[in-house]
Amino acid sequence: MKLWLVLLRLVVVSAVLLGCVVQREDLVASGGVDVVTAPCEDVELDVYVWEEGGRLTVRGTVESTRHSRSMVLGYVELTVTAPDGRAWATRVAEYHPLPPRRGKTLETRFDATFDGVPPVGSVVRVAHHSSPPDPH
Question: pTM for the complete prediction?
Answer without folding.
Answer: 0.73
